[in-house]
Every structure is written in structure tokens, then in C-alpha cells.
Design goal:
There is one protein chain. 71% of the residues lie in helices and 0% in strands. It has 490 residues and is mostly helical. Helix 4 runs antiparallel to helix 5, helix 11 runs antiparallel to helix 15 (331-361) and helix 14 packs antiparallel against helix 19 (421-446).
Length: 490
């Protein structure tokens, strides 16, 4: 057995170690040093310290990039892994800043600690190259998010939603573990690379298809794809703003990239085809059916919503369908497309939750009608809200337009040019449907007048700065996508 170089191991996980130190520090200070302060001050200090830890973790990742894979190849390092880690830290930073100065929860230290644990799990997920390590990282992030959902003192139904999230998630986790155990039992390995080499000899074995189905179901829960989506509307509705933003942004980015790598690396020998009926058995037809179901259910259900958060939940389900379309593309194209789409979608959705937090702090509900006259009450919030919604709708020159474009182009590059044309046509059709409910959000913001008794909305400086940066990023990345894609081509 090769001896372990512990210094090298510490450098490999230096980013995660910074988050662990920050976690312990914020928990200790809140329990010992901040108890005499007001809740708003404690929230400000907790959010600031957590944000500093995330920034330091990003700085460590850039300054001292990991020098080697973890022992036994359980975690691997690639340019994609490093990029996704930086993106996750950025989305987590934007999300936790929504906590600053708010009175979401009395358990500030516990909230920040769980938030950092969830981020830690997401970082480990994207680097995992071992089925067992992948499952452990997945559960670390999921269990933290379950607990975060319950920590909302503003909403009496938070505990119920968290319990629902936990029960559905536990069932999905059990299915995922069983599916991964079937893959291990057939191939005798937990490594993605060895799985690719050995799985081809088991094509036609019913246990292989059972393992594939259960594994896909677990990841479909993580990204809120139909029919494993039922937790999303309740969680988006009642979870604290920072937690909901992390679920909607960071969790999806990590979930899609890990699913893509598992399918394209570990299960590459059994793709099947989804070019037309009858489908050839493999993961591609299953992903295609999940994509169509998610786009249909998500977009049609969003049409009937009257609350912004629930509308965002159903919209997220539809957006998961678009991402699944891109996963069907060739590995390089699919990776670039999903990276760009998931990150820019995360920027927009975190920004929307920031606007909703500003409204909640002023005593407003998340009813669509409460947005009436926002352009007069707070021009800054109105401009940012409009930018984020138009990006989700896929309106150029915002990043959301290129995100969907890259996904659809990637899908068309797999096989013959017309193989997935039917799926892209379905996605384009539902994108048109989505314009209706996105414009329904913008109508009261830009057209309606506020009620006479409604006062201007104050926006804390830190939140205002966060929203401006997010809106600018959505615009700049839409005009200059190479800032994110680098030298990659689509």
C-alpha cells in the first residue's frame, strides 16, 4: 500500500478545510460572544463571517490549487472540477449575503454552520470519482439542506415542508444507494473509470437496468425533475431565503454536473438512443423522458401560480428539463453547456430570492399582486427583478438566452443532426409557453400602480450591492460568454 502524504492530502482538501474552520468559528462566536446582541446584529455578523470564510476558501483554491488526486482515486481534479468549485463558492457567497441584517431565524450560528456544511457537501460531490464517496457527499449536502429548510421563524409551515423534504429525500437516497450497490455488485468496482471498462459486459442483465433506473431516480430528486419533484414547491415557498437560493442554485449546479459525469464517464458504454421510437435501451431515453415530463409539468403548473416563490419552484422544474436535454449531447459540448446554463441560472434565481427577501423584510408577502408598482417604490429592485426574470425567460442579450441555446445545440450534436430535433422542438415550444408566466411576473412590476398607502421600499446597502452585481453578471455573461466558457467552443 502506498503511504499517504498527509501534507499533500491537506492541500488537496484545503478549500474544504477552510470552510470547516469557519463553521466552527461562527458556531462558537454565536453561542458565546453574540448572545447579548439583537437578532439583526447577530445575523449581520454571522453572514459576514460566513461570507469571509467562503471568500477565503475561494482564494485558497485559486492560490494553492490541489496538487494531486485523493488517495485511491476517490476524488479527482480536473479543470472542470476546479471551475465548478469556484462557481459553487460564488453562488453560496451570494446566497448567504441574503441573511445579513435579517431576522429569519433565532439560531444564527446553527444556520450558518449548516449552510457551510451544505456547501462543503456540494464541493465534495463535484470532485467525487467513487460511488461511495459520491453518496456520502450527496447526503452531507442533502441533510444540511433539510435542516436549513426548517429554520424559518417567519413561516409556520417550515417544519412541515422540511419533514416532507426529508422523507422524500430519504426515500430517494435509499433508492440511490440500492442502485449504486447493484452497479457495484455487477462490476466489482466503485471507481467511475473502472465502471466504464466493466459495465459493457453486463448489457442485457436486468440488474444493470434496475441499478441505472434507481440511480437516475436519486439524481432526478436532487435536481427536482419530474416525477421526483413534489418537494420543490413547498421548500421554495417556506425555506429561508439563503437556504432556498442555495437549493435552487448551488444544489442544481452540483447535481447536474455530477449526473453528467456519472452518465458520460461511468455509464458511457450503455447510452442507448433517444432519436425516435422505438428507443434503444440505455440512459439516453430515460433522460429524454425525464426532460419532457419536467418541461411539461413545470411549465403548465407555473401558469396557475399566484405566489412568486411557488412559481419559481415550478419554473425550476421546467429549467431542469432544459438542462436534461443538454446532457444528451457529446461529453465536451454537454459539459460546457450545462456549466454555463446552471451557473447563469443560479445567478438569476439567487437574485430573485434577494428581491423577495427585501420585500419580506418590509412586511410584504410573495403574492404576485404585492409586486404592484415596484418600479415606483424601488427602481433598483424593479430593474434587478426585470433583469433576472427576462434571463430566466431566455430573452437576449441576457445569459439565460445563451444558456438554453447552448443546451439545445449540444443535444443536436449527438449522433445525426436530426436525431434529437424532436426533443429540441418540444423544449422550444415549452420555452414559448414559459414567456406567459414570466411576463405575468413583470406586468405588476412595470405597469401597475402601487396602492396609495404603500410606502417606498428601503433596501439595505449590502443587499442592494449584491443584487446589482448579480444583475450585471447576468448581462455581461450574456454578451461575453467566453468569460465563462474560456477557450471551449459550442
Amino acid at each position: 500500500m502506498t503511504p499517504v502524504d498527509y501534507l499533500e492530502l491537506a492541500l488537496t482538501f484545503s478549500t474544504e478545510l477552510v470552510l470547516l474552520v469557519t463553521l466552527g468559528l461562527v458556531l462558537f462566536l454565536d453561542l458565546r460572544g453574540w448572545l447579548g446582541s439583537t437578532l439583526a446584529v447577530r445575523s449581520q455578523r454571522g453572514a459576514t463571517l460566513t461570507a469571509v470564510g467562503l471568500v477565503l476558501a475561494g482564494g485558497v483554491l485559486l492560490t494553492f490549487p490541489p496538487v494531486a488526486d485523493a488517495p485511491a482515486g476517490s476524488f479527482v481534479l480536473t479543470q472542470t472540477t476546479l471551475w465548478v468549485k469556484l462557481a459553487l463558492l460564488g453562488l453560496s457567497l451570494a446566497s448567504v449575503l441574503l441573511l445579513a441584517g435579517s431576522e429569519i431565524t433565532e439560531h444564527v450560528g446553527e444556520f450558518c454552520a449548516l449552510f457551510l456544511l451544505a456547501t462543503e457537501g456540494l464541493l465534495l460531490m463535484v470532485g467525487a470519482e467513487n460511488l461511495l464517496m459520491l453518496f456520502v457527499a450527496l447526503e452531507l449536502s442533502s441533510l444540511s439542506l433539510y435542516a436549513l429548510t426548517a429554520l424559518n421563524r417567519r413561516h409556520p409551515d417550515a417544519s412541515e415542508a422540511a419533514l416532507k423534504y426529508f422523507l422524500i429525500g430519504s426515500t430517494a437516497a435509499a433508492g440511490t444507494l440500492f442502485g449504486l450497490s447493484l452497479l457495484y455488485g455487477l462490476t466489482g468496482t466503485l471507481q467511475f473509470s473502472l465502471l466504464t471498462a466493466r459495465i459493457g459486459s453486463h448489457i442485457g442483465d436486468p440488474l444493470l437496468w434496475a441499478g441505472l433506473a434507481l440511480t437516475l431516480a436519486g439524481f432526478a430528486f436532487k435536481v427536482a425533475a419530474v416525477p421526483f419533484h413534489t418537494w420543490a414547491p413547498d421548500v421554495y415557498q417556506v425555506a429561508p431565503g439563503p437556504a432556498a437560493a442555495l437549493v435552487a442554485a448551488g444544489s442544481k449546479l452540483a447535481g447536474f454536473l455530477v449526473l453528467l459525469r456519472l452518465l458520460h464517464a461511468g455509464l458511457a458504454p450503455i447510452p442507448g438512443t433517444a432519436s425516435g421510437l422505438p428507443f434503444q435501451s440505455g440512459w439516453m431515453p430515460a433522460v429524454a423522458l425525464l426532460a419532457v415530463a419536467s418541461m411539461a409539468v413545470g411549465n403548465l403548473a407555473a401558469l396557475a401560480q399566484t405566489r412568486v416563490r411557488r412559481l419559481l419552484a415550478w419554473s425550476a422544474i421546467a429549467q431542469a428539463g432544459y438542462a436534461l436535454v443538454g446532457i444528451l449531447g457529446p461529453t465536451t459540448d454537454a459539459t460546457l453547456a450545462v456549466q454555463y446554463f446552471a451557473f447563469t441560472y443560479g445567478l438569476a434565481v439567487v437574485g430573485l430570492f434577494g428581491v423577495l427577501e427585501a420585500l419580506a423584510a418590509a412586511g410584504e408577502s410573495d403574492e404576485i399582486s404585492s409586486l404592484a408598482g415596484l418600479w415606483r417604490r424601488s427602481p433598483l429592485l424593479a430593474v434587478c427583478f426585470t433583469t433576472f426574470v427576462l434571463s430566466l425567460a431566455g430573452i437576449p442579450p441576457l445569459a439565460g438566452f445563451l444558456g438554453k441555446f447552448f443546451l439545445f445545440v449540444a443535444a443536436l450534436k449527438r449522433g445525426q443532426p436530426l436525431d434529437h430535433l424532436w426533443l429540441v422542438a418540444v423544449a422550444l415550444g415549452f420555452s414559448v409557453v414559459s414567456l406567459y408566466y414570466y411576463l405575468k411576473l413583470l406586468k405588476p412590476v412595470l405597469v401597475a400602480d402601487p396602492a396609495p398607502e404603500v410606502r417606498p421600499l428601503p433596501v439595505p446597502r449590502l443587499l442592494a450591492l449584491t443584487l446589482v452585481v448579480l444583475a450585471a453578471a447576468v448581462l455581461v455573461l450574456g454578451i461575453f460568454p467566453t468569460l465563462l466558457l474560456g477557450s471551449g467552443t459550442l
